[in-house]
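S., here's the first fold you wanted:
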Amino acid sequence: MGEGLRRYFHSYLPAAPLATFRLAFGLLVLASVVRFWAKGWIEELYLKPKFFFPYYGFEWVRPLGPYTYGLFALCGLCAVLVAVGYWYRTAAAGLFLSFTYIELMDKSTYLNHYYFVSLVALLLVLLPAGRYFSLDSSLNPSRRRNQVPRWTVDALRLLMGIVYCYAGLAKLNSDWLVHAMPLRIWLPAKNDLPLIGPLLGQVWVAYAFSWFGAFYDLTVPFFLLNRRTRAWAYATVVIFHVLTAVLFPIGMFPYVMMVAALIFFPATWHERALDRLRRLLRLPEAAPQAAPLQYSPARRQLLLIGLGVFFVVQLAVPFRYLLYPRELFWTEEGYRFSWRVMLMEKMGQVQFKVVDGATGRARLVNNYEHLTVLQEKMMSTQPDMLVQFAHYLRDYYARRGVQSPKVYADAYVSLNGRLGKSFIDPTVDLARVSDDLRPKPWILPFDDEITGL
């Protein structure tokens, strides 16, 4: 290890940034759980459906029936405990496990910010964010530390940088930059908004949003790191994500990113914020300075190896699409977990046909007898979900006396304003197709080109 790296891994920062991040992150996850519960989404998404779309390798993850409410309650409780820093390490592990289980229950509910929350929760299990301004440190002052290794704070900054930069790299494609798609479709639909509404129907506005969005994602982490540009960059973060929240229904994601970006502010800012909060809540004055947190050489090495593996995976996974031969936006092979945020408007319609293998009798399937509106919408454009539903139909009709059911699908998909076209080979029996990670040759050609990353 070079001398510069050795100095870096033995340098320290005040622990306040980890404490404010922990507090804000826990409260945001709690707000998300309360929002889910209050809007009735737990029942709508996890109790009412007859069928769920599992992730490859996680087929054993299923909704728990009425106990799903208990799972959300556990997640909310862990979020509170993380926020206040009580039983911190156990609470962070519980938050990661419970939130990730919820995320894995049904593929049709996938959102990038759910994945981000799971990753942050996993990082918090490894980081010493409960050593300062926490119940743990108040009840057991020997655990309190005013300073932590610099890399524990930089780990969160690095994750934020990866999210932003990969989102920016994903926007460097011809649909986004050359054709301003899909913003040319989405923005005019918001022309009833006050003040900015009339502008949103203008083509040049869609191009301006597209180009600025790519520039913003690629550069904002570096502007946030720079002391001279940080305040202006954070103002841009707020404006950008407030606009995103107004224009697009993407839940808590804008607020999560606005709060998470505070990790780039210097420790003195976080210390002042925590002092104000302490006075507001009339909490006892901070204890005298404690010794910096010093890991044993073996534990520090183990933690650094764990973080190294974590970040290698985060850097590599978004590029797994290169292992597949055809257009990513069309096949979506390697699309998830790659920070491709709001890059396409994809509409689909699919009609399944089940054929009795013994008699040849065919019957058409009403998708809505088996799927919710959301599930049907997501399934109609995603090949792996089409296969999963075909397997469900095979088993469903086999239980009702159909001999060796064959399942065929007529699917038509429109991508970013293009005319709809056949999506998968209607002569392929999807009941016999494997649901795995290999390329899917039964996806029909795109017959167009989207250049870029």
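And the second, which I think is the more interesting of the pair:
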Amino acid sequence: MYAKFVRERITQLRLQKDVSEYKMSYDLGHSRGYIYNISSGKTLPSMSEFFAICEYFDITPIEFFDTEIHNPKLMNTLWEKISQLDEEDLNLTLQNVTRLLKKK
């Protein structure tokens, strides 16, 4: 169950980043089939490789396992920007987000 989740999550994040298995393998310093072997269920990354994969996607391990976050890199960027706002701008942002959610 967990192995399948790891494989599918890596694939999801890789597709969001718009990078091939081949390119990701090389970017991580492995042979061309490394990510394919993970995605196909032949192997799983070691713990150190898992951390490298998280770094590759600019996410934390917690974000990797949080299925509620569909685009963790975008959420990180948003959080970095929002955390720089003053209280007045935070309230305006909250009002805008609330308004946008009502449109759904």
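Why I say that: The chain has two domains: 1-67, 71-104. The longest helix spans residues 2-17.

Talk tomorrow,
H.
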